[in-house]
Amino acid sequence: MRKLIAALLLCALWLAQSDLAHAQDPRDPYAYRFVQVGGKFDNPLYLTHAGDGSGRLFVVEQAGQVWIMYEDGRTLDQPFLDINALVTDDTFRAGYTERGLLSLAFHPQYAQNGVFFVYYFDRDGHTVLARYRVSADDPNRADPNSGTILLRIRQPFNDHNGGGLKFGPDGYLYLSVGDGGGTQGDPEGNAQNLSVLLGKILRLDVSDLNSDRYAIPPDNPFVNVPNAAPEIWAYGLRNPWRISFDRETGDLYIADVGWAGAEEVNFVPSGSKGGMNFGWNIMEGNNRLSDKPLGEDYMPPFVAYDHIQGCSVTGGYVYRGGQLQALRGLYFYGDYCNGNVWIAERNRDGVWQTRLFRNTRRQISSFGEDERGELYLIDYKGYVLRLQRS
């Protein structure tokens, strides 16, 4: 009997130690969870902050509204911006569409100048970049009459229009534009055509806040290339839905939604001069689709997965918050179709390693950061969730 009791005690001790080790693993995905913040939104696509120390979060709804939410979940009763009349048409009544208000970027000196930029798909079938200003009377309301269109790009189809809008560490505005090819695999060959803006990352100088035009950064890679659009910074993309800069290193991450077989995420190290070709529609992920030459500027993705693992990649952020120290430096990304969230990092040899963080069972339309670097997940069904300890 004593031997049996001793054996049971040893077994219980081993199990307790095993559970303790599991619980103390700082990167154990079960040590963290995405927790809903605030109430329900209508088809939210994006979340960002103004960088002004206010603690406000700005939630972008596809139908053209931007709402202010605080970190405790409190949401203001009136929208910060409402451009519904510019973006909404009957396609919203038929279910999911890639049209609408897609993203928002605040000027790096927003606290001083009150300027921000929006990226939307208009009623006439164009991708639009527009500049707005905050109201002079109310910091929680934009001036609806301040809109200035800086760029309009004709889109041949109603989807695969891109959607990323970010200021880089160099102060220039980066805009990710899809190939406009719909479900047909870029039939116009836009992504590899340097004379058009479709299927590209654009880099623009928007520092003149009183102009109705942008300027071209003089060191853009195709400025002096005959017949090339000088706005282009990188090319060979299908539908770069979300992009982000690592706020600590300046590295750029580009998540490109695939076509028939693969999803991918591309990595551009800080200080790059641009000019790289990400391969579409010669490549999709690591799959070769054409015998056309890629050239020396081809840059393969660091993440590529087939459609058994998902069907629509959603790019995220490198976590740089202060609440979850064990996760600092990890790049989070997900998939819209199955709700998977993965993490990626480079080991000491510079080799990328990825693993499943957890399945959220959410329709991940975007990730977001607050001003402190804490990570949020946006569920297209209407919810904002923050990553925190379990």
Please explain how this structure is put together.
A four-stranded antiparallel beta sheet has the order 1-26-25-24, with no helix packed on it. The protein has a four-stranded antiparallel beta sheet with strand order 2-3-4-5, with no helix packed on it. Residues 1-24 have low confidence and may be disordered. The two termini are 40 Å apart. A hairpin with a 4-residue loop joins strand 7 (115-121) and strand 8 (126-133). The protein has helices spanning 2-24, 84-87, 110-113; strands at 32-36, 44-48, 56-61, 65-70, 81-82, 100-106, 115-121, 126-133, 148-154, 162-167, 173-177, 200-204, 232-235, 242-245, 252-256, 262-268, 283-284, 287-288, 303-306, 313-314, 331-335, 340-346, 352-359, 364-369, 375-379, 383-389. The chain has a single domain (29-389), classed as TolB, C-terminal domain (Neuraminidase). The protein is built from three helices and 26 strands. 43% of the residues are buried. It has 390 residues and is mainly β.
